[in-house]
Amino acid sequence: MMPSPVERRERLDPGDVLVLHSDGIREHFDLLEWPGLLKCTAGEIASGILERFGKKDDDASCIAMRILP
What we know:
There is one protein chain. This protein is of the alpha+beta class. The chain has one domain. Helix content is 17%, strand content 14%. It has one helix at 42-53; strands at residues 17-21, 62-66. It starts with 16 loop residues before the first strand and ends with a strand. 9% of the residues are buried. The mean pLDDT is 87.
């Protein structure tokens, strides 16, 4: 059963990284397991999360966006 979407507003500053992912990514993961990942490009961050934290028996998607100055 799909939950109802909830609108949220957050302040994002230059240099921040926003990551959205599906439930095909492990529920709890720690980016500290991959030092330096957030210094990569947005595309490398998304593909890195998919590769490292994606569930092997589920489809997954991930979008990463870096806020530019």
